[in-house]
Design a protein that fits this description.
By secondary structure, this protein is of the alpha/beta class. The chain has helices spanning 52-67, 79-92, 134-143, 179-187, 212-222, 231-243, 289-322, 338-375, 377-380; strands spanning 2-5, 30-36, 70-75, 98-104, 106-110, 115-119, 132-133, 148-154, 190-195, 228-230, 251-254, 265-267, 327-329, 332-334. Helix 1 (52-67) packs parallel to helix 5, helix 5 packs across helix 6 and helix 7 runs antiparallel to helix 8 (338-375). The relative contact order is 0.11.
């Protein structure tokens, strides 16, 4: 659930129950502070923007509905509201929480100061008194007690946030962790930054009612095909989508102070979770009925195929030992006596039965595989049987 509020985040964060998404990876609650600066006050000399409020609304929807975030949005934030919201988080977050701070609005870079700023709606073009320095944002992020903080900035010159940061994460190999690896990644603290561009102007709009960057972020999150999505897997897809639509280059980095090589892990509630020690189809949840129907066919078909093969092998061995005692007449095989005739009938019955049972086993295997791979495609694509 999320709310658009006038100026501040909620004051209290209750202890997370064990059934929250974060509990799967050893975290408590997921929080998001989404800040929009769109309609600037008169006389500030700063032009209005078109989409920041729509941007944070779209981001809030996917974070709350699909990833279990408790979301607070601050629409048309003033300088005081933005700073107060960040300070409130410093006071109220718990050590096992995870937080996203998202800003959509104007940003500037002052070369003479070598510093970047976010511009709340009461900022004035002629004075920096109500500008919010990105250095101050980074300092507040370091001070937050949460285990993970991910800052996402969609503003011009937002890439200045990553200057002096460790940018190697931008080139890390994409991973698709299971629950055990996701839990390990989530153990360490992380302080990561993703920006919509480098130290450059970025587009306002261009993403069918929201910004190009917000569209890339929300579609990547909504379309994720894994239960556990890490920041280093999220970013390359965002960058690819933005680069294909706009003349801007998203950047990712992490704050060297306050980061202990953890990673922000999103838990995608649209996809089925398995026990971390799942080793067999027995561990699939009841929400995947096609896989449960396919399992007995796979097991039963395999057993029948083994029995049928054994019957065929037995009849072949028996016939090999008897074949020299039989003559070939005009109407077929002629047994030398009644006892041999009885043995021949037994061998032939074994052979026929073996062929029938083998055929049934192969059919069962084929049907079971079909259920698991094709019928179970929707569910099967969403779950991993992990060791």
């Amino acid at each position: 659930m999320w709310n658009i509020v006038g100026w501040s985040v909620c004051a209290a964060f209750a202890q997370a129950p064990d059934d929250t998404p974060g509990a799967e990876v050893g975290l408590a609650r997921y929080h998001a502070l989404l800040v929009a600066a769109q309609d600037y006050e008169r006389g500030t000399g700063i032009p209005d923007l078109r989409t920041p409020i729509a941007d944070v609304t779209a981001v809030a929807e996917v974070l709350s509905s699909q990833y279990g975030f408790e979301v607070t949005t601050v629409a048309d934030a003033t300088h005081e509201q933005l700073i107060d919201s960040l300070d409130q988080l410093i006071r109220d977050l718990e050590p096992d929480d995870a937080l996203i701070v998202y800003y959509a609005g104007h940003g500037v870079f002052r070369a003479q100061e070598d510093r970047g700023y976010w511009l709340p709606v009461d900022a004035n073009e002629a004075s920096t008194a109500r500008w919010v320095s990105t250095d101050d944002v980074a300092a507040k992020v370091r001070a937050m007690p949460a285990r993970h903080v991910l800052v996402i900035a969609d503003s011009c010159f937002s890439g200045v946030l990553t200057r002096g940061l460790d940018l190697h994460a931008e080139h890390e190999q994409e991973s698709r962790p299971g629950q055990l690896e996701a839990t390990r990644l989530a153990k360490g603290r992380s302080r990561w930054v993703i920006t919509s561009g480098a130290n450059e102007p970025v587009m306002d709009g261009g993403g069918r009612g929201i910004s190009v960057f917000a569209r890339a972020l929300t579609e990547t999150l909504a379309g994720a095909e894994e239960r556990y999505l890490t920041a280093d897997r999220l970013f390359p897809e965002i960058r690819r989508r933005v680069a294909n639509q706009a003349d801007q280059t998203p950047v990712q980095g992490k704050l060297l102070r306050g980061d202990t090589y953890g990673q922000f892990v999103f838990v995608n509630t649209k996809h089925v979770a398995l026990r971390p020690d799942a080793t067999d189809l027995d561990d699939l949840p009841a929400e995947v009925p096609t896989l449960r129907r396919g399992r007995p066919l796979l097991y039963g078909g395999g057993a029948l195929a083994l029995v049928g093969g054994a019957l065929l092998a037995s009849s072949s061995v028996a016939w090999a030992s008897e074949r020299d005692d039989f003559a070939q007449g005009p109407d077929g095989i002629v047994p030398p006596d009644d006892a041999a005739a009885s043995r021949f009938r037994t061998i032939r019955a074994l052979n026929v039965a073996g062929g029938v049972v083998l055929g049934l086993g192969v059919a069962g295997l084929g049907t079971g595989v079909g259920l698991v791979v094709t019928e179970g495609g929707g569910a099967g694509a969403r779950v991993e049987v992990r060791r």
